[in-house]
Amino acid sequence: MRIGFALPQFGPLAHHPEDIARFARQAEELGADSLWVGDRLLAPVDPIVGYAGTDVIPSEFRAALDPFAVLATAAAATERVGLGTDVINAPWYPPALLARSLTTVDLLSAGRLLVGLGTGWSPEEYEAVDVPMAERGRRLDECLDALDAWWTRNPVEYRGDHWAVPASHVDLKPASRPRPPVYLAAFAPAAMRRVARRADGWLPIVVVPAGSGAPDPIAALAERLPGVREAVEREGRDPAAFDTILRVNPSADASVEDIATALVRAEREAGVQHAFVDLIYLGKDADQALDLVQRVLERARAS
After folding, report:
1. Is the peptide bond before 87 cis (omega within 30 degrees of 0)?
2. How many CB atoms lie within 10 A of CB 87?
3. Which residues pair with 38 in a beta bridge?
4. How far is CA 273 from CA 155, 230, 256, 267, in A?
5. What is the pLDDT of residue 212?
6. Count of CB atoms within 10 A of residue 45's CB?
7. Which of 8, 26, 46, 89 has the fewest Cβ atoms surrounding its Cβ within 10 A?
């Protein structure tokens, strides 16, 4: 299994951006296979929708670094690891701006970019970027079309209901050919149909350890993945070419054993070949986060 880790982007780690390059370089030296960013804009004081089914926003989201700047820093500090977004909230961005940023990171990393896109869940963040949240699904579909045009054609032109790119010469294309792989995060039925129809892969999430009385997340993932691949095949696509990258979200009381066990079980029981661990609730500084990287890799690969 390829095992990656989130870059120091949120919470206490965000207050020390000078550590991003060192974290990325040393995580690669320790054997990490990929490094990841997310996309948080703000933490509402009185949220309309809380995080992960709660009615609050974690305090860690009150400090968030720009994902593209963090990825560019990691790209310059590393040579081998994949660099992923899980996820960029695509409807927030005009596709031309998003394409330029993603292309830049892919070129800086010599083709190591893994593009993960989603729609987000916070009404306040949509208000802050002046995009109607009700349009998020349609805007994501248009974004996918516009990105494909930007990356594979020259001149580039795209016309949609929400976004447009006038006929333009765009000579810089990604190092990845014909384009970087595009993954989608989804859970709802309509969003999962989009995954099957349009994505190169799916970005599921498991929380460890599972809360008291909660279903076993790895067992649930193993049960769901065959259906996802069947949906891909129904769309006339090759399920063998469809990828899954699992995000493991440890809670604040998770142990290294909890995390490693989830990784090992995801590979053995669900066939997951690539996963990454988000340390947002566990890493208080870069040294502590790197210590966790080393211990998780040692424990998971010893199993």
Report:
1. yes
2. 23
3. none
4. 37, 18, 20, 6
5. 75
6. 7
7. 46
* Helix ranges (DSSP H) in 56-188: 67-77, 95-108, 123-129, 136-152
Single out the residue of 158, 86, 162, 100 nearest to residue 130, CA to CA: 162
Whole-angstrom CA distances from 183 to 79, 104, 116, 144, 156 are 22, 18, 5, 11, 22
pTM here? 0.97
Q: Given the structure tokens 């009385």, which residue do they identify?
A: 213
Q: Supply 243's token pair.
A: 């990828």
Ranges of H-type helices in 90-216: 95-108, 123-129, 136-152, 189-198
CA-based diameter of the chain, in Å?
56
Task: Scan for tokens 């509402």, then name that residue.
Answer: 44
* Two tokens, residue 209: 């350890």
Residue 255: CB partners within 8 Å, gap ≥ 6? none
Residue found by looking up tokens 């989130």 in the block: 6
Is the separation of the CB atoms in 207 and 217 below 8 Å? Answer: yes
Profile the chain (303 residues) by mean pLDDT over runs of 10 residues.
98 97 98 98 97 92 98 98 98 98 98 98 98 98 98 98 98 96 96 97 95 88 97 97 98 96 98 97 95 98 93
The per-residue DSSP string of 220-284 comes to HHHHHHHHHHHHHHHTT--GGG-EE-EEEEE-TT--HHHHHHHHHHHHHHH---EEEE--TTT-S
